[in-house]
Design goal:
The complex is a heterotrimer of chains A (148), B (394) and C (357). With 148 residues, chain A is of the alpha+beta class. Helix content of chain A is 20%, strand content 34%. Chain A folds into two domains: 1-38; 49-145, Rieske Iron-sulfur Protein, CATH 2.102.10. Chain A has one helix at 8-37, and strands at 49-54, 62-68, 71-77, 83-87, 98-100, 105-108, 113-115, 121-123, 132-138, 141-145. In chain A, the strands form two sheets. Chain A has a six-stranded antiparallel beta sheet, with no helix packed on it. The longest helix of chain A is centred in the N-terminal third of the chain and has 30 residues, at 8-37. In chain A, 30% of the residues are buried. In chain B, helix 15 crosses helix 16 (216-224), helix 19 runs antiparallel to helix 20 and helix 20 packs antiparallel against helix 21 (336-390). In chain B, 63% of the residues lie in helices and 0% in strands. With 394 residues, chain B is an all-alpha fold. The chains are: A alpha+beta (148), B mainly alpha (394), C mainly alpha (357). The A-C interface holds A 25, 28-29, 32-33, 35-38, 40-42, 44-48, 69, 146, 148 and C 53, 56, 59, 63-64, 67-68, 70-71, 75-79, 81-82, 246, 249, 253.
């Protein structure tokens, strides 16, 4: 039943309830927006550049596997101190490759695939070279980035 | 039956039998086909392209088939001459004939056994293509089928007391699957293990070497393990003891157990030495597989609910890789590197599981949030409806 | 009150207030369709708000676009909500705009003196489709990439200038990262700028002319000799508008939470086209019609004929107020044509969904 429009008390009460609900709706709208605007834990997508851990702990003639996006990357410090980085996934059957200090090159344990320190497949089943990334030191940290 | 009819039947039957056999023999005999066919086949032959003519092999005059025992020597007259071959391809090998002479094929042929393979049986007589040409019968993907023309022929193999099932066995192996299904030309075919020109079954002492050309880590672990001495003492063929030779199927975690048909059970019982290792590995795999499937199920559920669970998927991939590594570590036949690696694998599945559960938790948070928002909107709509109805009529 | 007085001395709020107080909306059995324009406007507002929010994290390059959208969906708090809202609202906006178009068509609201309202509305619809087409590519996923390749290829059938148009659209001979950057610019700068002007004009004209009363209602009122009933714009119509918007908001929230917009797989320029390439649903009928046209029609290239027919149709509907003499007969013809067009679009869309494989 439509209420009598002349009842000012009832109208005021209705407006008050309406306003309260509207405040609730506004809260439901602005809460996500404010949270969205606050910076996320990782401030940018790990697409092009990723931090690969402290530089000091990567000794010459060793390698380190780090996540790059959703795939592993292999950072290698050469004997002369130079840094290089490669995609960590073997081009044969997608096992994760590793650095072999004794051979001084990259090796895949799954089917004995070998890559040299430019990422070229030099022996075994891998059909093509590993992608290589840029690697450099930024302060105390190693940073690797995709070549664009 | 009158004698005339019997006579006719016998003669007729004999004629049919002779005809059929003759046809089969003729059809099977290499080099008895129409003279024009070799000439046609020779077009595009690598030899034809390099100026070799019919007369080079068949001599002048009317060409006839080359005697089978002389084929290898004929080919070798050029192919074993480094100075000659260098003119065509500077790095070409010239040891094929020498290798052939050491092979079972070559040795039998030297004894005058013409039913064994010689050059032209694998490379063709006319229409020879370079090995790197994918159409060549000796290209990686075709080698097995080429060998099978003789080695899968039961009649021919029985004569030499060889097993005609080898090709079929290999066809069911992980290697055939990799080579033919996935097109991985580095996967082993017959010649990878047996050699091509010097084809000989690898001896028991060389099996591990053959396998280890690709399966390095497994071989390394096996050689350092106690299993090696035990197998050698018992004259067991290393890798083949468990994996067989041709029908190398995908290994299964179930092989490790005390009950048949588990492989370990062939020799081991619960009270023999090595039982604790089997027990550790069995329970290790059970644990890892169970937690892997659980994590996978949670992640799938989250994904199907529309959540992106990349972290979890990365962790699961990590777990999968550690599981593969753990399967390699079985070849250490010892508890130590295994348990350490198992812990890492379980840590990865725990991470995956946690990511999946976090996603599901996030999902229910969203649903609760939505419920709250919907409640606010519904309340607003209800009040607004009342408000609209209470407006003065226009 | 003193602030109001202070403002009223400086701003025309009294005039605006008076206009609002006097503004009325006709009340009759077709009044429901008056809300569709406002509904489209609401979805547009959501698009602007969520679009601006997405800009904070989105990166318009082929190397980063996909990952940045994925980043928004997974790492940014409520990013999934903002992106899903943007996608869902876009689709609902197109739907609302189409219903608005057909309701205006059936109720003959385009007739004199509202020709320019109609024209600006049609332009807004084309712009909306442009928003949809350019926005579809921005996440740089496989489906969008190939659909854009097909979509941008269509003008290639036009003689002489076709190839130039394709190259212009794609920013090169093929769909690449250059296309993405270009589409991004069009999506967030060019189209919004044009929209601001045209939408402003459209709304101004709607206010200027007021709501159109359908001829059938006018005739009826004339017959019984009583003017058409009206309701005040504020609060009667406005509150009902608000009611509709809140329902739409609840719908959007539910869709976004239960059916978050998929991201698909990252586009690979060198991969083969996957199965099931299709544009957004509102382009499906065009897509299917182009697919069904034979290679050659009357000695002409089939695709060209189809494009010509579609363009003529678009031009016809754009200029409808000038073509329709507004007689009882012509109104019936327009109704039949509109129904035929609706039926054609519906059949083609259904065909593309279920019979097109």
């Amino acid at each position: 039943m439509p209420a009598t429009p002349t009842n000012p008390d009832r109208r005021r009460w209705l407006d008050w309830v309406l306003g309260s609900w509207f405040a609730g709706v506004c809260g439901a709208v602005f809460f996500p927006v404010v949270r969205y605007l606050s910076p996320p834990e990782i401030s940018e997508p790990p697409t092009l550049t990723v931090k690969a851990g402290p530089a000091a702990t990567l000794a010459p003639n060793t390698g380190r596997l780090v996540p790059f996006g959703q795939k592993p990357a292999l950072v290698v410090r050469l004997k002369n101190g130079e840094l290089r980085a490669f995609a960590g996934t073997c081009t044969h059957l997608a096992c994760t490759v590793q650095y072999r200090p004794d051979l001084e090159h990259i090796w895949c344990a799954c089917h004995n695939g070998h890559y040299d320190l430019t990422g070229r497949n030099i022996s075994g089943p891998p059909p093509k070279p590993l992608d290589s990334y840029e690697a450099h030191e930024q302060g105390d940290e190693i940073v690797i980035s995709r070549r664009t | 039956m009158t004698p005339t009819i019997r006579h006719a039947v016998v003669v007729g039957g004999l004629a049919v039998w002779l005809g059929a056999t003759g046809w089969v023999v003729v059809a099977r005999q290499p080099g008895t086909a129409n003279v024009q066919d070799p000439a046609v086949a020779f077009q595009g032959d690598v030899h034809q392209q390099n100026g070799v003519t019919c007369a080079t092999c068949h001599g002048a005059g009317t060409p006839g088939p080359v005697d089978r025992t002389k084929i290898a020597a004929l080919c070798a007259s050029c192919h074993s001459d480094p100075a000659f071959m260098r003119k065509y391809r500077p790095q070409v090998r010239t040891d094929q004939h020498a290798q052939y002479l050491t092979s079972v094929h070559g040795q039998q042929m030297s004894k005058g056994e013409t039913r064994v393979a010689t050059c032209s049986d694998c490379h063709k007589a006319h229409g020879v293509l370079p090995v790197r040409d994918a159409r060549s019968p000796v290209a990686p993907a075709n080698v097995a089928a080429t060998c099978a023309t003789c080695h899968a022929d039961a009649d021919r193999m029985t004569a030499f007391s060889r097993d005609p099932a080898v090709f079929d066995d290999w066809s069911h192996s992980v290697h055939a699957d990799a080579l033919l299904e996935r097109g991985d030309t580095s996967a082993p075919t017959c010649s990878t293990c047996h050699g091509s020109h010097g084809a000989t079954p690898p001896g028991i002492d060389s099996v591990a070497n053959v396998c280890s050309t690709c399966h390095v880590r497994e071989a390394e672990l096996y050689r350092a393990s106690t299993k090696r001495a035990a197998f050698e003492a018992m004259d067991m063929p290393a890798c083949l003891t468990c994996h067989s030779n041709h029908k190398i199927v995908h290994p299964n975690d179930g092989w490790i157990d005390f009950k048949e048909p588990a492989l370990c059970a062939t020799c081991h019982a619960t009270d023999t030495p090595g039982a604790p290792v089997i027990r550790t590995m069995r329970s290790g795999f059970d644990q890892l597989n169970a937690s892997f499937h659980e994590a996978e199920a949670v992640l799938t559920r989250a994904e199907e609910a529309g959540m992106l669970v990349d972290d979890g998927m990365t962790a699961l991939r990590d777990a999968q890789e550690r599981r593969v590594r753990l399967r390699v570590l079985v070849h250490s036949f010892a508890e130590e590197p295994f348990t350490a690696s198992l812990t890492e694998g379980l840590a990865a599945t725990t991470r995956a599981q946690a990511a999946g559960e976090a996603a599901l938790e996030e999902l229910s948070f969203r649903r609760r949030g939505l419920a709250l928002a919907t409640l606010a909107i519904l309340g607003f709509l209800l009040t607004l409806g009342i408000k609209i109805r209470s407006l003065p009529k226009p | 009150m003193s602030i109001r007085t202070w403002l009223a001395e400086r701003l025309p709020i009294d005039a605006v207030q008076a206009a609002i107080d006097h503004k009325t909306v006709p009340l009759h059995r077709h009044s429901f369709w008056y809300y569709l324009g406002g509904m489209t406007l609401f979805f547009f507002g959501v698009q602007v708000a969520t679009g601006i929010l997405l800009l904070l994290y989105y990166r318009p390059s082929s190397a980063e676009a996909y990952d940045s959208v994925q980043f928004i969906m997974t790492r940014v708090p409520f990013g999934w909500l903002i992106r899903s809202l943007h996608s869902w609202s876009a689709n609902l906006m197109v739907a609302a705009a189409f219903i608005h178009l057909f309701s205006v068509l059936y109720l003959k609201a385009y007739r004199k003196p509202r020709e320019f309202t109609w024209l600006s509305g049609m332009v807004l619809l084309f712009i909306t489709m442009g928003f949809g087409f350019t926005g579809y590519l921005l996440p740089w996923n496989e489906l969008a990439f190939f659909a854009t390749r097909v979509g941008t290829d269509i003008p290639g059938a036009i003689p002489v200038v076709g190839d130039a148009i394709v190259t212009f659209l794609r920013g090169g001979p093929d769909v690449t990262g250059a296309t993405l950057t270009r589409f991004f610019g069009i999506h967030v700068a060019v189209l919004p700028a044009i929209t601001t002007v045209v939408l402003g004009l459209h709304l101004l004209l709607v206010q200027y002319h007021g709501m159109s009363v359908p001829p059938s209602i006018e005739d009826e009122a004339a017959r019984i000799g009583r003017p058409v009933r009206v309701m005040p714009f504020v609060p009667h119509f406005a509150l009902r508008d608000l009611f509709g918007w809140m329902v739409a908001l609840a719908l959007l929230a539910g869709l976004s939470a239960y059916l978050p917009w998929e991201l698909g797989r990252k586009a690979d320029l060198f991969a083969a086209a996957p199965a099931g390439i299709r544009p957004e649903w509102y382009f499906l009928w065009t897509f299917q019609a182009l697919k069904l046209v034979p290679g050659h029609v009357l000695g002409l290239e089939g695709e060209l004929v189809a494009i010509s027919v579609l363009s003529l149709g678009a031009l016809g509907i754009l200029l409808l107020p000038f073509l329709d003499p507004n007689t009882t007969r012509s109104r019936r013809v327009v109704n039949w044509l509109a129904s035929a067009a609706l039926l054609f679009m519906a059949v083609m869309t259904i065909w593309a969904y279920w019979g097109g494989e």
